[in-house]
Design brief:
This protein has 414 residues and is of the alpha+beta class. The chain contains 14 helices and 10 strands.
Length: 414
């Protein structure tokens, strides 16, 4: 006879059923597990994709690490830039001057964050130049008084390339007419579209030397931005660098600057996982129901096996094996379909949008106007493990019930 016996009988019960009701419940359990795993993998991959896309866009504007002095201005920046650029983990270093200003046109005014940059270094730490719709950072010349702004900001100001705008700083100057804010006319020489309204509508770039003249920072800068080989080592790198530079320097990393934002995303991940986890949990209850119905249906068979000398432990193992097989089948089907769907969601969604002629995320309302996906092996393994463990756990009550059946009581009315 086939060995081990409990495995043989458990597999036989899995595919050979007398009762259609039990078969239907078992199929529902498999389908429920499959759908739960599929949805979990797909949704978490989409959420990972959104997080990755947002992080990429944010880090295109915000450096991995920023170095500045505690008094607000960094002196002898060229020396510091060269020293920092030569560190093993650093792939780029660029000075910057930063200030909140007012930008005005003939028809409108808007508060923006002004960045004074050095075009020759900026590409090392930022990808904004790759998103230019008109012009380039290299069109920003010293004493050329050119400015690069986002397309959203250009729309608010109703300006186009070649038009003039006025920058008004918080500093004041003494004139015969009294105390007046410092202001300077600039020409729009470049337009960029980063894909995030927060940046496209509220940031502007000018040459670092023009910023020094406008803001009266002389040869000092606000700080130096660094780009690292691995953005995830930025917190440790920042702490180490701050310790080396001393208390007169302030070092911040991208995770610290956007801590609340990414913490909120992480909480959404956890909340979504818990919500979707209940889909798999509900499927496990279907598994439990199917096994309890099977135990009830097979009481006579169990009693006969017991009279032939089969132990309660073997009886218990039969139903654990059966439920586990159903759970594993449902899980593997869900993993296969989930991985397939998550891997192709970026091409599938646009086709659905084109077919029904609508957009899930309209560009004028959302930072990201498409559905990204980032399938991670770690998530797949965790979901697979949790699903199989739940399926096995669901078999325990029914298997224990089967093991406790007394042959005399079960055969009394047969």
């Amino acid at each position: 006879m086939f060995k081990p016996l409990d495995l043989f009988i458990g597999l036989r019960y899995t595919y050979k059923r007398k009762s259609q009701n039990i078969s239907h419940v078992s199929v529902a359990a498999v389908l429920g597990t499959m759908i739960g795993v599929l949805v979990l993998i797909t949704i978490l991959s989409i959420m990972n994709g959104f997080e990755k896309e947002l992080r990429t866009r944010i880090l295109g504007m915000v450096a991995h690490v920023t170095v500045s002095e505690t008094d607000g201005l960094l002196k002898d920046w060229q020396k510091h830039r060269d020293e920092l650029a030569n560190r093993p983990d650093v792939v780029g270093a660029a000075p910057y001057v930063q200030s909140q200003i007012m930008i005005t046109s003939d028809t409108s005014a808007q508060g923006v964050l002004l960045h004074g940059i050095s075009p020759e270094y900026q590409d090392q730490v930022s990808d904004v130049d790759e998103h230019m719709e008109y012009g380039s950072f290299y069109d920003l010349k010293s004493r050329g008084y050119g400015i690069a702004i986002g397309v959203e900001l250009a729309g608010k100001l109703n300006v186009y390339p070649g038009d003039k705008v006025t920058l008004i700083t918080p500093q004041i100057q003494i004139t015969p007419a009294g105390l007046l804010p410092r202001m300077k006319r600039f020409t729009v020489v470049a337009l960029y579209r980063k894909g995030m309204k927060e940046y496209d509508s509220s940031t502007a770039f000018i040459h670092i030397e023009d910023a020094a003249r406008l803001l009266k920072t002389r040869k000092e800068v606000t700080g130096i931005r660094l780009k690292l080989n691995d953005l995830f080592v930025a917190p440790q790198f920042a702490r180490q660098l701050e310790h080396e530079l001393g208390e007169n320097y302030k070092v911040t990393d991208w995770a610290e600057l956007n801590k609340a934002f990414f913490a909120a995303i992480q909480m959404e991940h956890i909340a979504m996982f818990i919500i979707l986890f209940f889909i798999v949990l509900i499927a496990s209850f279907y598994m439990l129901a199917a096994l309890i119905m099977l135990v009830t249906d097979k009481q006579a068979d169990i009693a006969i096996l017991r009279t032939l000398g089969m132990s309660p432990k073997t009886i218990r193992n039969i139903f654990i094996i059966q439920g586990s097989v159903l759970g594993i089948i449902g899980t593997l089907l869900g993993v296969a379909l989930g991985v397939l769907l998550a891997s192709n969601i970026e091409t599938l969604i646009p086709r659905i949008e084109d077919f029904f002629d609508f957009r899930i995320f309209p560009p004028d309302m959302f930072y990201i106007s498409f559905v990204p996906s980032d399938l991670r092996a770690g998530n797949v393994w965790v979901i697979t493990g949790v699903s199989i463990l739940l399926s096995i756990a669901a078999t325990i009550p029914a298997s224990l019930r089967a093991a406790k059946i007394e042959p005399v009581e079960a055969l009394r009315y047969d």
